[in-house]
Amino acid sequence: MLVLDKPYVSEYLLRCAEEHELPVLRTPVAERLANGHSLRYVDPGSATVRPRVLTTSENALPLVAEALPDADLALLVDRFKDKLAFRRASAPLHPDIDFRPIALADLADVDPASLRYPSVIKPAVGFFSMAVHPMFGPDAWHDTVVAIEAEMAAARKIYPRAVIDGSVFIVEQMLQGEELAVDGYFDSAGAPVILSVFRHLFASGDDVSDRVYITSKEIIEEHLPALTDYLSALGRATGGRDFPFHVELRRDEAGTLRPIEVNPLRFGGWCTTADLTAQAFGFDPYLAWFGAEVPDWPAILADHAGDVYAIVVLDDTTGIDHADIRSFDLDAVCARFAHVIEARPIDFREYPVFGFLFVRTPTSDLSELEAILTSDLTEFVNR
Question: What is the distance between the alpha carbons of residues 186 and 194, in angstroms, rounded to a whole number?
Fold first, then answer.
């Protein structure tokens, strides 16, 4: 059962659901987001057994709980969505990861000298890197707390509590290594099935933005064996069964994988990672999940050497008040790339992002991506 909700449902996913008659939970929001597509709706409460469930965002998690009052499913959702609960559940695999919960109301009273550095502070229930801050020493603690309080006040106006709940934060040691983002699912036996692998690019060591994610034949082949082994252990530790996920991890120079977070019942946010995987490689993660299919990665990747496929997240880093922005020139951004697969404008007055691009670039030259990675996007803003 596909559960559609804000902030975004792509045309690709809607076409996929319509063409393959995927069951879609009937809700007022889903019917508005259908955008004229004839979808196969199922009514809440009509399922006699737990169906295969996939959401488009954490906004939909309360709808899942209401439509499917399944205690085991609810336990898994809570175990993964709450970063503190996840850290505790996965602690046997990572006794070396230091973490500490702190209530938002208590942040100002914390002695920053008592914290371990470098570290990261983030909401225990969060999304889209909002209110996430790296910390390299105690001196910036006060400014960080002030920034978090302002960011949470803004986030509450955009996202429901199921998506971002800033009542509790978690401070944890900063994990080292390259960052990976993976879509997949645990099958009925708890074995992981990997449906996409992306590498998260950063502009600098203190960058926590979501600006660029890349995938390629080489990236998938390099990490697939280690990810499969690690996620097998994680599935055993957490009890994941018949459960789709989007997991973000760090892999250090020794090859050790450590999880940042696991997002339950969905793939990458804003219909990005699954859509681009389908458009880049001709393999559809949505259909794989609903059909309980295991991808034949050697066959899928056979003809894709030499190209990198990227998600470019045009998050608003301009620092300009939205009231002072007349428009955003998405066409001008597209002109900076030789091959744009798809451009998706977003209403920046409703969400803090101007749009998304899917692009293709040669593995040998990532200069287009490096340029957009360091841009604050003000050059594309019309006032």
Answer: 9
